[in-house]
C-alpha cells in the first residue's frame, strides 16, 4: 500500500469497457453511410470527410469524429446548400481543359487536388465538378511569376559566381 489510499492510482483499463467500440474501420464506416470504401479513400486524399487515425496501413475513424462530421453535414433544407450547376456553366467559369489550353499550364496541376492545394490554385467545386475563373488564374500566375523573379534576383545576389563555368551559370 505504501501509505497511499487504495484508489490513488487508477488504471485506465479498469474504467474502459471492452464492449464499447470507439473507432470504425473504413469498411464499417462505408457500410454505415451506404458508400464505397473507395469513396472514403478518395475523400482522405482530397482532405474531405471525418478525421481519422492512420496506424501503419490501418485507417480508423473515431466515433466522436464521425458523429461530429454527420452533425456538420446535417441540413434542414437544400436552399443555399447546393449550387446550381447551370450557374457554373456560364462563360466566366472554365473547365480544367479550357484553362490548360488558354494559358499553357499542365492539366494535372488543375485536375489533381493535392497539386492545386500545394500551389494555391484558385478554384470552385460544384459537386464533383471543378471550375476556374480565367481572371483569377491569370492573377495567380502573375503573382507566381513575380515571386519567382524576386526569388531569382535574391539568389543571384547571394551566389558568388567566381570561377563557375559559363554553362553552369546558364543552368542556374
Describe this structure in words.
The structure is a single chain. With 172 residues, the protein is an alpha+beta fold. It folds into 2 domains: 54 residues, Orthogonal Bundle (Arc Repressor Mutant, subunit A), CATH 1.10.10; 73 residues, Orthogonal Bundle (Arc Repressor Mutant, subunit A). Helices cover 49% and strands 12% of the residues. It has a 3-stranded antiparallel sheet. Helix 2 crosses helix 3. The radius of gyration is 26 Å and the shape is elongated. The chain starts with 11 loop residues before the first helix and ends with a helix. The C terminus is likely disordered.
Topology summary:
Blueprint lengths: L11 H4 L7 E3 H8 L3 H10 L6 E3 L2 E5 H11 L19 E2 L1 H8 L3 H5 L1 H7 L4 E3 L2 E5 H25 L7 H6 L1
Antiparallel strand pairs: 1-3, 2-3, 4-6, 5-6
Which keywords apply here?
9 helices; single chain; 3-stranded antiparallel beta sheet; Arc Repressor Mutant, subunit A; 2 domains; about 170 residues; alpha+beta
| Largest beta sheet: strand ordering | 1-3-2
How many separate helices?
9
Under the CATH scheme, which architecture of the largest domain would be assigned? Orthogonal Bundle
Give the CATH class of the largest domain. Mainly Alpha
Order of helices and strands: HEHHEEHEHHHEEHH
Q: Give Rg in angstroms.
A: 26 Å
Helix percent band = 40-55%
How far apart are the termini? 72 Å
- The structural class is alpha+beta
Q: Tell me the domain tally.
A: 2
Shape: elongated
CATH topology of the largest domain: Arc Repressor Mutant, subunit A
The biggest beta sheet reads: 3 strands, antiparallel
Which stretches are poorly predicted, pLDDT < 50 over at least 5 residues?
Answer: 164-172
Strand content: 5-15%
Strand tally is: 6
What's the rounded overall pLDDT mean? 76
Amino acid at each position: 500500500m505504501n501509505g497511499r489510499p487504495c484508489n490513488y492510482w487508477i488504471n485506465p483499463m479498469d474504467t474502459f469497457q471492452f464492449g464499447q467500440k470507439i473507432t470504425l474501420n473504413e469498411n464499417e464506416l462505408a457500410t454505415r453511410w451506404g458508400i464505397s470504401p473507395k469513396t472514403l479513400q478518395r475523400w482522405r486524399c482530397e482532405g474531405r470527410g471525418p478525421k481519422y487515425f492512420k496506424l501503419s496501413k490501418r485507417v480508423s475513424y473515431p466515433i466522436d469524429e464521425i458523429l461530429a462530421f454527420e452533425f456538420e453535414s446535417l441540413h434542414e433544407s437544400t436552399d443555399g446548400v447546393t449550387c446550381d450547376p447551370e450557374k457554373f456553366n456560364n462563360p466566366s467559369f472554365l473547365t480544367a481543359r479550357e484553362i490548360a489550353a488558354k494559358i499553357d499550364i499542365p492539366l494535372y496541376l488543375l485536375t489533381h487536388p493535392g497539386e492545386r492545394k500545394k500551389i494555391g490554385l484558385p478554384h470552385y467545386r460544384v459537386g464533383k465538378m471543378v471550375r476556374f475563373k480565367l481572371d483569377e488564374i491569370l492573377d495567380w500566375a502573375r503573382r507566381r511569376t513575380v515571386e519567382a523573379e524576386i526569388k531569382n534576383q535574391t539568389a543571384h545576389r547571394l551566389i558568388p559566381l567566381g570561377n563557375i563555368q559559363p554553362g553552369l551559370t546558364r543552368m542556374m
